Amino acid sequence: MYKIATSHEFDAPAAVLWDFLQDFAHIERWWPRHDPAVQIDRVDMEGEGIGMIRHIYNKGYDAPVSERLDALDPQKLTYSLSIVGNKPMGLTHYQATGRVEALPGDRSRLNYASEFMTESGKPDDAEAWLRMAYELMFAGLAAAVTRRAGQ
């Protein structure tokens, strides 16, 4: 089992950041639209609430990345998800937990931790792809909270 732990600070209150993350069905509200690395074409939803699955169809990828919401705790500002079905980059297991933390001065931090396994037992390619996806997640969320502040 391989693990990644990362975090990013945002110039927005925790409640604003949480609003985007807890809305699991609408990742396109905050995912970067203009980065060519991973662009969302569409998202199909299956189910509601805990256990719902968002099938994310990305431009240039043959199969969707299907993420299942495993936990959502609005009091602790935490959520967990797993990739199910066809997994990208040779992943055989993936689970992640995000935790929003309030910081002084109406700022916040997203702490993101994941664990994964790969078919080859070699994590390098999968880890590089996951870290790239996390950077896109952070960039998209930063832009979204900035847009929200401008409203």
Automatic annotation (TrEMBL):
InterPro entries: Polyketide_cyclase/dehydratase, START-like_dom_sf. Gene3D superfamilies: 3.30.530.20. Pfam families: Polyketide_cyc2 (PF10604). It comes from the Bacteria. This is Polyketide cyclase / dehydrase and lipid transport.
